[in-house]
Structures are given as structure tokens and as C-alpha cells.
Amino acid sequence: MMVDDxxxxxxCLDEQDDAEALEDWxxxxxRHAGLTVPDDPPGAGERNARHRLWSLMEAVExxxxxxxxxxxxLERLSDRHAVAIxxxxxxxxxxNLKLAIACRDLPDGLRVENALFLGEAELLTxxxxxxxxxEADAFLGGQVADxxxxxxxxxxxxxxxxxxxxxxxxxxxxxxxxxRGLARKWLDARLWRSMTDADRELVLxxxxxxxxxxxxLDEVVDARGSWQRLLTLPAVDGLLRAxxxxxxxxxxxxxxxxxxxxxxxxxxxxxxxxxxxRRIARALARRGAVVAAMRHxxxxxxxxxxxxxxxxxxxxxxxxxxxxSRLEAAARYLTPAVLDRYPRLALAHCLxxxxxxxxxxxxxxxARIDGLSGDGARVDDVAQQELLVDDLFVRGVGLMLRTPTWxxxxxKALRAQLTDVAQRVEIDPVMRAMFEYGLCILxxxxxxFDDALECADRARGALGTRWSYLPMILDYQVGxxxxxxxxxxxxxEWYGRAEHSLEADDxxxxxxxxxxxxxxxxxxxxxxxxxxxxxxPVVPSPFESGFSPFxxxxxxxxxxxxMTLRTQGPDAALEALRRMQDxxxxxxxxxxxxxLSILQASTLAGxxxxxxxxxxxxxxxxxxxxxxxxxxxxxxxxxxxxxxxARLKLLRARRDFEAARTFYGAVTERVAERGLRRPQMRxxxxxxxIEVAAGDRHAAAAHLDExxxxxxxxxxxxxxxxxxxxxxxxxxxxxxxxxxxxxVRLATEVRSKLQDPDLRPxxxxxxxxxxxxxxxxxxxxxxxxxxxxxxxHAGVRYHVRKIFRALNARGRMDAVHRARRxxxxxx
Length: 827
What we know:
Shape: elongated
CATH class of the domain at 623-761: Mainly Alpha
Mean pLDDT: 84
CATH topology of the domain at 623-761: Serine Threonine Protein Phosphatase 5, Tetratricopeptide repeat
Low-confidence stretches: 144-153
Largest sheet: 3 strands, parallel
Strand order of the largest sheet: 1-2-3
CATH architecture of the domain at 623-761: Alpha Horseshoe
Helix content: 55-70%
Radius of gyration: 37 Å
Strand content: under 5%
Structural class: mainly alpha
Number of helices: 46
């Protein structure tokens, strides 16, 4: 205002201000602002004193420039004569004087109704008085917009005191009253003085909650009505904000006020500070908020309470219910001394170490845990029962991470061990479901899919509808089984269902999300021959992919190699493989390292680099005869598929066509036996190319015809994309023949795709109505969409079919996924 030549006087009021004091302070405030106000004549009597206010108003009027008087904390003014002075200024003040009044309540006797009625005054709420983000940014010199201070906008929330504190911090003046010191001084001088001891204690206790929830606050301070008391305290009006998308009974204290309250609480009443934290911890634990409860227990200086909370939540079973990242977050509040006293939590620590690539450290911790040996006798002690079950789970995860392939004999032994443990101890439904899920993975890796699906069904039966995390990763596993069997629509639906569950459960970790993205990208590559246009496939760490790290890493790494080979050539693909090999060897993951060696050999063979391929084959100890290449006892179906492809490529490079035909015949038998549609089609495309290289175009054409028949049900085109030049030459003759009309249409579409050098899907154009429907496909029924649009159910179905055709989608969730990856829907 000074820059705009506006004279501004500011005055903060309190309970001691009577009429005479107020007149005196008003004169001082205006003089401080630069207004010349005549002094009272020496020896002036009471008459002149009564006219001091009139002299002030005359001086203001004579200034002939806009003048502003800011009266802060007017609610403290209790003297009726002082209030009358404010009324006089409001009703009969000079025309160039504007009043700005800040108060949490109007004092008795203040007359503002007439001014409001006539439109001469405006009433602003607390939220209207907050600085906007743009205003705060200008005040702080660009810190908010430029990201100069992380969380600035959220932390300051437009509170002037917070803004001033932040600017002083940024200036680094060294003044003890700068920054947060200023805020604390202001709170001491202005906020706390207006409260009773009981109100002050309530605010300090509430500050330990973030956010503050009504029932939780009453429970923690052990007093009904505390929530209403807090909301009606004038001193904190505007400093307790509603939390977006939360219940009205939830508030969040201004971050700077909360910080100052916590510091004051800890300094002045450390025992109560710890006790309230412990009460919060117990209350949150009862509500299932394990990590937050443990944090409060830790802040309450009670490591044993933190340990008890995690143990009561199931220890390692928290990872099963809510994900590895949630268990890892909880374990940060466990001290070394606690781990020595709580064996189940030491096992949880082992699991975390294992899933973060620190196997050697995990082995050392495991060796120190007491009570893990079982003699086969019935275990009646509940704690020992839980320990044995947790131990079985942790050991199983560690073994599967290193060796995802178990022989039939080993799986049988594991089932016997599970049965034995189940006879001696009580296994809760969550852990029973997890064991079934583990068996599901083992069977799926061996391509024993019917057994795998039975295990998945038993896992769901054990869980019921109580948990979302484990059913979600089960959906991903079942989707992966559908993918390899060529059941494309089922795979897309299972993946979509899992992703929908993940979006609905904000407690879940990001591991399954990354895993799902890898699996869906793999499916998209198999169908289209490309992933998302312009996208670089991401390979997550094996340790952040949930409970099936080999499968996810294999899918992601193979996709990356495929796209790198296509866009940058074999040398770039081999360099990407080398980097991945270095990481997995350092992490001591032999199964993944072996799979990468197979991809390396396959890449070299495809590039015709025979000697290098043979060297990698030898060093990695890859199988040397047909039967060993197709073995599913000692390797997963993914390894078998990759080895089969690599061997066919190597035999083609050697021009050993008879050996290639013999091996392909063995491949055909094995994939038919296990229902492995994807490996069948990949190897079929290679066999087609081998026959062309051998000069037998008739045999090659027969292979193409078989591929097209399989493609009609699966839409898998990657095999032909890999052998594009060969496939294009054969497709011309195929289309001139007498093939089935449906296959001719499909072959025409495939040829058109192969003729595109970038293999990019054509741009998708949707009408406004179709875009409206697309945005609601994954969360609304057709009937609801029809009601929203005012059209019939049949009309919606018509547009849905058009959307499916435009996106080349097989179902609702498939359409949603494709739309997201094409940028038509937000992620």
C-alpha cells in the first residue's frame, strides 16, 4: 500500500484497551504510518482529551489520500466505550478512511449491519483471506512456482505468518526471530495467551495427530466432545482445514502451527508428549493402520509397543495383506534390540533383506533366530506355531527368488511339509492362501497350468473377500497363464481386474503395479509386435515385483531386448543385456542370470554371430541336446521357450536345416503336450523362416497357413513381425491362393501391419460420445452410461463395439488399457 501512496496504520487490540487507551494507540499508529497529528496543548484539560479523536479524523481527512486503518483481533475489545469509538470511525469517519477489521468474533455492541446492508462493507471468510498460490509465489520471489522449496504451497497454505517465516528463512538473516523462530514468538504472544490451560493442552495433544479425526481425538485424550471443543476454539479458527475427499470429521492442522505445537509439547511436557503418542499408536493399531501406529509408538519412545503392534498385525503376513513396501515401512521402526527379543519380527527383517537383494545379510540374521528348529511334534504354544509358519513362508520366498523351478519331487516334498505343519499348528487363512499361491507359481513355471489354477482357486477360497492384495497378485498370475495359453481376452481381463483392484486399494505398494505394467506390455508386444509407440520398456528390479520376481523380470527384460533389437540393432540389445547381467550377478540371482544368458545367446544367433553364441552357450551351461532344451523339470517354461528359440536360430545360422526340422518336431510335441500356445507360435514362425532359407517354400507356406489359423484365435503376430521379410514374401502368395475367406481378411491385415516400417498403430479417432463412453467403461455399467447420455442400452452397446474396433480391443478392460497407452485416457 505504501508503494501505491496509501497511508496504512495497523493496531492490534487486547482486553486491557479502554476508550482512552484506544484513542492514544490510534494516534500513535497513524503517526507511525506517517500522518501528522497535532499534539495536545500543554495542560490541556479533559475537554481537549475528548476531542483528540476528532483531531485525528480531521488530520486524516486533510491528507486527501486514501488511508487504511487495520484493527487486528478486535474480538478482544471488551470496553463498551472503546467499541463506541470503533462505531464512530465506521459510521462518521472521513470519506478517505477505510477500515480493515480482523476478528474471530464481533465484540458486543459493534454495529456493522447497516454498512453490510448498504453494500459499504464486505465480510470475508478465513479461506478468502488466505494468500493464493500466485500471491504467495510473488511474496516469496518465485519459490512456490519454481519449486524452490519442496512442499511450499502445501506447507504455507496462504497463512501470512507462515509466508513471512518462510521468506525470512530464505533470506538467512541470522536473526533469532527469523523464520520459524518468528512463528514461535508470534504463537507465544498471540495464540497461547488467549487459551485456558485445558484448551492449550487439547491443541497440543491434537497436533500430534495428522490428520485429526473426531473419534480418534476423543479416544486419545480420553474426553468426549474434544472434537467440538477444538473446532470452536477461536484461536485456531482457520488453522484447521478440511482434508479433500475425506469425511467432514477430519481436519489437518496448519503445518507450521503443528510443527510449533509439537516442539512446545515435547519441551514443556515430555511425559505427556510420549503418553499421547503411545495412545495414538494403540488406537491406530486397533484401526489397522499399522505403519502409522508404529511411527507414533516410536515417537513415544516405546520400541516394544512398536514391535507388539507389528507382531499383532502378523509380522511377515503384513506383506501378504498389504505388500512388501508396507512391511518395509513398518520395519523401519524396529530397533536391533527388539529384533533380538522378537523372533517373528527378525523373520520379517529377513524377508525384507531378501526382497531387497541383501541375501547374505538375511542369512546372518536368520542364523541368529532362536526357536526355528522343529522336531515334528505337535506344537501347542501359539507363539511357536506362528513362528514355524512364518519361517516356512520366508524360506519359500528366498528359495523361489533364487530358483523359480522346482522339480515334481521337490513340490511333492513341499506339499508334504505343508501338510505336516498344518497338522501340528493352526495356519491362518491368509498364510494358507499364500502357500497355495506359492504352489500356483511353481506349477505355472513348470507349465502345469491346470494344477496351478486349482491352487489359485484354493487360495481364493481360503481368503474369501477379506483381503485385496493377494487376490490382486493372483489375478496377475492367472492372467499370465492365460497369456501363454493364447487366451488373449482372458489375459487382458485378468490384468485389468488386478489393476482395478490396485487403483481401489491405496494401501498397496507399487510392486504389483510395476509387475502388471510389464505383463500387460508383454501381452501387447505379442499381439501387435510393438509396445506403446515411442515408449521405452522399463525393467523393474527383481526385488520390487512382488511375489513372482522371475516371471516379471523375464517378461520385462525380454520385452526390452526385443524393442531395443528392433530399433537400435543387436549391439545395443547386447549392451542392455550386459548391464542387466551385471546387476543380477551382483544380487546373486542365478535363475534370472541364466535367463539373460539365454536371451544373449538368442540375440547373437539371430545376428549370425555363431562363435560368440556358442561361447555364451558354453559358459552359461545351457543344454546341448534336444531333450534337455525342452526339459520342464529343471527350467521354467519361459526358459524353455527362450532356449528353443535360441537353438532354432543357431541351427539356422549354421544352415543345419535337418537338425532344425528334427528339433522343431520335438518342440511341437512338447508345446502341444503342455498347451504352450505362445512358444508354439514363436517357434512356428522360426520354422517358417528356416524352410525359406532351406529353399522349401511349400513347407514354409504350410507353416504360414498354420500360423494364420492360430493367429485367428490369439491375434499373436510377434513371430511374423520378427520374420517380416520372409512373412511378406509368403503372404503375397497366400493371399492369391484359396485360403479360408476369414483367414484371407486376417492375412490382409497382418500384411498391412508388416508393411508399416515403424509398426505403429494407426491413429485412433473417436467421436465425442465415444470418448464419453470410453471414460466410463471401467467403472460404470452400460445401463448407467445410457442414463447419463439419455440414449438406449442398445445405443451404448453400438458405440462400445465401435470403440472396440477402433482400439482393436477384446473387452472393456482391454479397451481401457489400450486407450491409456495411446494417451486417450489418463493413467
